[in-house]
Amino acid sequence: MSSGPPNEIVELRDVQLAFGAKKVLTGVSLKVERLDRLVIMGQSGSGKSTILRLILGILQPTAGEIFFKQFEISRLKRRKLQQVRAQIGMVYQYSALLSSRNVRDNIALPLEELTRKSNTEIDRIVDEKLELVGMRDSKFQMPSELSGGMRKRVSLARALVMEPELILFDEPSAGLDPVISSVIDELIISLTARSKVTSIIVTHEMESAFRIGTRMAMLYQGEIIADAPPEELKQSDNPVVRQFLSGSTEGPILEGSKDAVATK
Ligand SMILES: Nc1ncnc2c1ncn2[C@@H]1O[C@H](COP(=O)(O)OP(=O)(O)O)[C@@H](O)[C@H]1O
Ligand SMILES: [Mg+2]
Q: Which atom of ligand 1 is nearest to the CA of 170?
């Protein structure tokens, strides 16, 4: 049995994943060091959300290994997996708040389900996290009364309540206008720094990627084809990377090229 990584908080080793005959990941290797903000970029349908689901242990790899700290995620029994998963915060693409619960009750949910904290203690934590994301005044509002940016803040607060060591963000600026999306990016940077938490951010938006990332990895046809600090990535002479960064229609990336993976 292999041992976990020494310095990294997350490591993927030659991870493969297929849905039936469709090969989505053909060999993904990645290391995430503590306090990194790793941005994973890639076309829509390239497998970015799939990578996050693998790290959370919601999906099992077809081959390869996934470590979170010393734990090999795919080998954990259900109970242990639940304990380990509680150390990972997740911010879903469209916030995924429960529409029947107000802001306070949405944020309290992980604490109610996974801890034995008293109501007073839960209230204290909820207030603290609401303050952090600038949403104290909305404590008793319902999700339907909030804008997209506000909902995103609430889902950020919810991801923080268990004091996670790692937070995963799936397309944090999806559906937000450019101004709000840069505000959310800044919030991600300040919160992760302040709470000393490592993060993995999935996005296909270049501007956001360069704003947030301390490191950037590019997923293309089932593999990580580039992995470097932003400034270094800008200098890449890989034609796929260049085309992706420039958003040009000229180059090796073709529409539907992700389907080529299936026939590899
Ligand atoms: N549960 C599933 N069953 C079958 N195919 C899936 C499933 N989840 C994702 N896929 C397929 O895997 C590919 C990668 O999906 P996803 O990781 O959601 O892409 P991204 O987040 O990069 O847009 C897509 O082609 C998608 O249709
Ligand atoms: Mg996705």
A: 21
Same domain, 131 and 255: no
Q: With a cut of 80, say whether residue 6 has pLDDT above it.
A: no
The boundaries of the domain holding residue 134 are 97-159
For ligand 1, say whether the CB of 24 is within 6 Å of any of its atoms. Answer: yes
Task: Output phi, psi for 191, to 5 deg.
Answer: -70, -45
| Model confidence pLDDT, tens digit, residues 156-198 | 999 999 999 999 999 998 888 888 999 999 999 999 998 899 9
What spatial distance separates the first Cα and last Cα of the chain, rounded to whole Å? 30
Is 150:157 a contact under the CB 8 Å cutoff? no
Q: Whose CA is nearest to atom 10 of ligand 1?
A: 19
Identity (one letter) of the amino acid at 181?
S
Does residue 94's CB lie within 6 angstroms of at least one atom of ligand 1?
no
